[in-house]
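User: Continuing from earlier, I have the next pair ready.

Assistant: Great, send them over.

User: Here they are, in order.

Assistant: Folding the first of the pair now:
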Amino acid sequence: MLRFLLPLFFLPLLACTDEPDPVIGEALIIPRPAELVEGTGAFVFTPGMTISVEEEAQEKLLQPFLANFADRMGWSPAVTTDTGGNITLATDPALGEEAYNLSVTPAQIRITAATGAGFFYALQSIRQMMPPEFFAEEGVMTSPVGIPSVEIRDAPAFGWRGYMLDVSRHFFSVGQVKEVLDMMAANKFNRFHWHLTDDQGWRIEIKGYPNLTEVGAWRADRLNTDERYSDWWGRAPQGADEPATYGGYYTQEEIREIVAYAADRFIEVVPEIDMPGHAQAAVAAYPEIGAVKALPTVATGGVFRYNTINPGKEETYDFARVVLNEVMDLFPFPYLHIGGDECNKEQWEIDPDAQRKMREESLQSEEELQSYFIQRMEEIINARGRTMIGWDEILEGGLAPNATVMSWRGEEGGLTAARAGHEVIMTPSKFCYLDLKQGHDDLEPNLGYSRLLLSTAYNYDVIPQELSEEEARLIKGIQANMWTESISDWSKFTYMNYPRVFAVAENAWTSSARQDWDDFIGRVLYAFRKLDARQVRYAESAFSPWMHHRRLGDKIEIRLETEATGLDVRYTLDGTAPDTSALKYSGPFTIGAGELVTAQAFLDGEPIGYPVSLDLPIHAGMDAKVTDRSGQALPKLSNLQYAKLTPVDTNWHKFSGNELALTMTFPEPRSASSLRFSTLRYTISGIYPPGSITVYGDRGDGEFVELASLEEPEKATQQGRNKVAHQLSFPATTLRAIRVEMAAFGAIPEGHHRAGARARIYLDELIVE
């Protein structure tokens, strides 16, 4: 039975004769349609208009659009099976499964499609053409709205347009998951990969194993929301008597609710139950499925070892059979993701059950044991008529017969799988991981361990050129992944999501021949206006200047650039904020001692992106000879080349030890009153700042006397990834040489995956002032 939605009229509106002018949107759609031709004029939505549908199923798929429309406008078009509506939906079986045609004139909107998905995607394009004012979160609009006249013919490039959300590392509520699904629908994604289990939390109710959520869903609270620091690795494990208070899970009823919500938006949900690695939460709940040295509690942060289930025990397969069948009961879709990634097999090498299983099955290596485990998981999944997906590590030791491979460690796994005749989903981290930094390492929030620029994400070619035409057909599509180690709240989620999710959406939907970076940037700017209306945080990194520097004699050369083209970049040399009257950047320039560059991009006279300023001092220690205890010269420490917050920056001097004694000898005596420098904290790799620092000076007699010392135990022990500034001041003194001694951990503390190892020190320029 069709449900008719009648306009909601208000007496003040009926009495009003002076209608405000309509607000018209623009035909700036992400992802870019296959064909779009703009016409003349606009279609204006007015009370009393109707939508003509052919059947009840079409009326149902209109509901998300109409509900949103009613929230903003205070009325909604009536839906009818009569012909001649202002908006009409008509079936055309000749169109592709998800294709649609959209014709907008001042008199009518006409949508044609072969399936409900096609009609739904046409509605998303209509919604994207609404003006930014339509997207405000609160209040009813007082002006009519309209969309421009256009003719659109559209269809997706790929059938798999995926988005993954990790809810194990940080838990997201049912409402937030629905917001993710709404975002996906708006950008025409159709696969929601739900990463439900990992070392840090089990998030799905399994009635056959209740401890998975009673125990496995909760961990000791080490939550850090300060985005200046990233301390996921090295967090202390849960104490013996410490309560586990951080976490949460989805009941089976909530799972069904989310699955239905996704289905209404033509999104299939792909659950991931990560095995055999990344299983510390499961093993904490049921130790009998673990291997030797299994960790007893749910992980509070990053773990690297002793976190696998035991492939040598039949109890493990009984567990998996119950869990996977309950999961398949909840998710009525073709695919189930088994994980299979980053499985550290140290435990299996010494576990008697694992070794016995290898002998019984004539397995020659632990890699073959993992393959044996994965193939048994596939048997469970295939028995229900489903297809197993795994990360590309499932290739190791032999690929399960019917598996689909999700290639994340680059493209090689996808190439190997496609050449072997297996379906592939491309999601290489360097193009598709939205949790990575999206701008200059020193200027972005300290979220993410590497970098993915918007332009890099956009310019990814999904089909590797090395594949034959037949092999290329096995590439099902592309997926964006949002891992949440650093994403501790919704603001961080949206910042890391936008605008790079737009780039992945366009790679998934739009053929490469239709993609254009400058055109995309124009549509991103329009999307920003809509995000602003909703007060959603997003990253402007692609519009912010990058500042590159290099030594040039006794000066430093500065080069500025932005990812987005066509911007006006202005800069100052005194540290003040640039405006449109500041110096205009036209090419590289040099700075001298005491000058501080601050740069800002402008578009149409308005600032865009964030202002950029880096401390690049030209100092009294420039070109001084720096040597270590053995007398080896260390020119990186006085060459005016400053390092960024990444261990791969070659400007760091990378010491393998945890104690340093360095001597800086000046060409001639000079006055000094301070020594400052930066060290790198990158504790996942065992790189720590020093906890004690002492500076000595030689006034010319060959004797070094202490000038200043610094004890910073908190800096030395804090976990995370960031640059650490150190400064030691002393009375102004004329010196021939300076010696600095520093020490970091003798042994990395327990709880870290490198516990017991000696810390290393990465040191930047020694700045003498």
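And the other member of the pair:
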Amino acid sequence: MEATDRREPWAGLFERLEVARDLHARAKWSAAESDFRVLLADLQEHDPAQLDPLGRAQWAELMVRSFLGLSNPVHALAGSLGDALALCDRAAAVERRVPDPSMASLVLVQRGVLHSRAGQPRQALSNFTQALRGPGLAAHRDLATTLLNRGAVYSELGDFAEALSDYRAAHEHAAALGHAQYIAFALHNIGYARYTLGNLPGALESMERAVDAAPDQDDGIPELGRAEVLFESGLLEDAEQLLAIAAERLSRAALRLEHAEAEWFRARALMGLRRFDDARTQAAQARRRFERGGQRSMAALAQVLELDSLLSETLLSTETPSRAVARRRAREGRSVSAVGDAAGPTLGYHPGHAARLVAARWSVLAGDLDEARDTLAALPRGMAGAPLTMRVQHYTVQAELAFATDDRAKGLRAVRAGLGLLADHRSRLGSVESVTAAAAHGVDLTRVDVEAAVRTGRPAALFDALERGRATFAGTGRVTPPDDPEAAALLTEARGLLVRARELGAADAKERERLTRRASRIQDEVRERSWRHAGNAGAVQRPVTVRELRGVLAQSRRDVVVANFVAMDGVLRCVRVDADGVTTVDIGSADDVIEHVRRLNADFTMAANDLIPAPLRAAASASLARNLKALDAVLLAPLHADGDLYVVAREPLLSVPWAALPSRGGLRTSVNSYVARGRTHARPTGQRRLLAAAGPGVRHGTDEAHAVGRQWPGATVLTGKDAVTEEVRTALATHDVVHLATHGRHDADNPLFARIELADGPLFAHELDGTPLPGSVVVLSSCEVGGSSQVLGGELLGLTSVLLRLGARAVIASVAKLSDELAARVMPRLHAHLRETDDPEAALAAALRDVAEPVPLVCFSSVEGLTAG
């Protein structure tokens, strides 16, 4: 307490009040209610008329604060606003007997708290503002709590700038008070306001500081706030898992409305993850809780989500709903919009607007285009002030309607506007993972664009639609490494643990597993820290169009084909582009190709394993040859690519060893996940710096590194204990060619921790984030780190994709098991050609030309001559 001159018996009673208030602050409702009631019973033993003036004032303060404190657990446990306000009336009656401006202000504040929880934010705002304008609030604690509560009301009303101002002022008072719990509340709410204003990295940073201030807070509020930010960032799996934890803790703390909010957000995450039944279950539960709590706006939003989940599932289904069903859903949406209009906006969301967006999409699906147009006309232009996801959905339905009415120009304007919003959003994000995760919010918009392009029957339209979506989330979020010494220390610790695990023998399997699990937990912590880094890479690159690409190909002296693959509705298609024109080729069943790729990987693994008996290896080699021939016939024969080939694709086609397909022998072949800009033409003359390093456990690694080094004058070769992570990390940022004869692993569950093994432990892809590469060629030998994981939204993560995003001109890596002996034979030849030509595709083709067995090395790069920007 900040008051002075506490005399017995009042000092002891004030201490008991503090205990009860602390229980309330930690949402220990039953214990708080019990303590407040016992305290009030003891206070009522005193006759204020028999007390001296100071004693009477302290008795009155205790009575007022106890009645007001009791109103919180009464409302939380019973849900009765009337009973809680009656306790405020009793507090006001005590204050009138012993007038005190500070106590009168506290009564106003508590009425505001209760009105806010009951879904009456404007009445609450009036209460809080009246209290803050009066002379009664002077104590830091009272000012902090009042500002926190008014900030929450401003947030509910969508005025997030005012909310942030109140939260910052509350933090100043909490810091002056030295109250850890209130400091944590203020920091958490500052983070929430930053999130609503679009600063997601800043939001996570504030929320993490809040956890540090009060690490024992277990009511679910910290998890709920962080999960909402992760959802907005597109990290839906992480958000969903955290929301499940938040919901359980909020339920235990009897925070009913916050529990419902967690269920609502979890339903949104589940819908994005395409777990539609679970999404509807969560949304329905949230709706019922909101209805019981009098939160009409949130109840309407939950009902909209139920309809939206049905819509999303329908749009992804191969079965078209009947017109009657679609019309019924549209009517339901319009009905909810009327309820939402009456309830009004909350937390920046307008339920009436959200319902109209879903209703309009159902109307388009029903073919009622005039109805859809009328529904959209009731929405404000541009949806200014609405959350990102709602604004993107607005552009999505505008595009759907325009394409359905054959107004392609208008549809493309809507698509470009929506992608522009997403590009602006991703430009604020610093980590590669955050940039790729943001694509989750563009899934519907890009699908609408691509499907409309297919319906035109024009190959150029399909190519342009594919690259519009892909380019939005290409590249990196930062052009400088983040200044995060704590993350660097954590990675060093994880590296040390993995080195210890690597050195253990077979008899120490349990200890090795323990060390690996501990390292994995540290990696998760580092990963979460990276989400707080803000972006500084500037504008997103322009997508490449067919017209621009054909212009570049026409200037090439070589015969070049660009093959842009896409899987839709189970069918694999390819847009084939060369200097003479553009065509679409239907390849066939996507599932058949996936099965061939799976078999190839298994065959390469067996064929490269010297421990497997020779007859089994021979059988695997024969199977490998058959599968390569079959894939060649399926993927390449229809394309008639007799010269250079640039493949543009997503998984599983990025795992195809394209250079090993029979028809590609001796020909330049390159692969990438989109048509990238900025690659310059080869420069056969000129000095180039090379570093070659050999990691531990590679049988021929040292010989290979020295053999590669001999191909380059002035090369730096690191072997043994000299081949350490710091040297290699520095070389990647400074050298023109980097060759790594190391073992490595792609981690499908945590792809940014794909790694290459060096003397002092693994170098993780994550460590390179934000490090600009100088247009270098990186060769990853004897590794299986050419693989990548496709995350929600279609973007790719892995060591190869990170190196390309950071500016590597080309990455040559293996997409399947490559034996050490074969790598040692191929790599010196590759570098001899690379030194002479500065052409990584040509160097790989020449190195593999006379090799009898298939080699799963792939050159990841893009077309030369497409200007950056």
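Worth noting for the second one:
The first helix runs from residue 10 to 25. Residues 60 and 98 are 7 Å apart (CA to CA).
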